[in-house]
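Handout, section B. The chain below has 418 residues.
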Amino acid sequence: MGEDAEYFVDSACLRGAALEKKHRLENDPASRTDAMEYAPDMEQIDSDVREKVLTAMKDYDPAAYCAADVERALAHETCGVEDFAALLSPAAAPFLERMAKRAQRETGRHFGNTVYVFTPLYIANYCDNYCVYCGFNRYNDIVRRRLEMVEIAREMEIIAASGIEEILILTGESPVKSDISYIGAACRLARQYFRSVGLEIYPVNTADYRYLHECGADYVTVFQETYDTARYEELHLAGRKRVFPYRFEAQERAILGGMRGVGFSALLGLSDFRRDALATALHVYFLQRKYPHVEYSLSCPRLRPIVNNANIHAHDVHEKELCQVLCAYRIFLPYVGVTVSSRESASFRDGIVKIAATKVSAGVSTGIGDHEEKYEGKKALAAGDEQFEIADARSLAEMYAGLSRSGLQPVLNDYVYV
């Protein structure tokens, strides 16, 4: 048993030791490990992408742009990096309507009127990390659950019966409680029920991504959370997630492991959202040029309420700013999918899918083992607590009908294995 597994033992003595360690991590920076140092078992790859992204982010000053820069960016048929930086700046705020029209044109050109629909399935909420903004962090007093395979199969059966054909499997970040073989078995089960299987799990080495791909996983999504390295260290106090470069390189290792697609995101509100949005898009931009055969996607979730979140103060990102980021993403990366999660309101999602977003979730639960209760009204006997509160709880049927009424075409799957 590792020292990062305090929640596994129901012992008053060990709980006291865990709380003492938590207090020490919060108040004594010297007690924390180096956030830039790989653990011995973490694979290091030869890549210059991280240096390019962080250098560009460091050099970016959103306040340095003026209206003329935004006008120039919108006049260009192809949006370059400098144009994108201008579109993210405060100077672009008065141009939001023009940005939205340009984004809508790019979306229609490359995606038509289609909107892809999927749902997440959380199969475990044990986590070894101490991230102060996350509902799953190891020191939060929540109900922990790890579904057994028979329970996962039941959850998948219920979800599949609703019509969903693409699923995103999520776990807390605990290699002890959710090891690779466990996740691989869940992928093999998912392949029996769904046409497309995604993963949002802790970062792993290339060989592990290759194994998960062989088990049936199609794509991997990793949230860098924030690309601001100083802020990252302040927010991630312990656990493997504290190692910034290993997390940053997760998508590239997934590509090397054979994954068909990779997803990227910063959690807007943890730091300067404009600089984080720039870094997220550039992360995609540089990898896309290095691995052009891969499918890329972006999402831009905002910080949501969680249990015990008094220690985290969000850098405000309102819907207008979020819309600006999404439009800038679409103009800069017209071929890349953009996902808007159930963290956002139904009205916002209904509007943004007509402009820039191409993928939404439906029938969402961030709890563990509660789909029978939420889908069929039967009381879940031992559900695990949720990671965060959602804002849009619409079912697939409700989402599908709403998209159709708006003149959009809901797509449940567009990939066939032969």
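Note. The first strand starts at residue 114 and ends at 124. Compare this with the example in section A.
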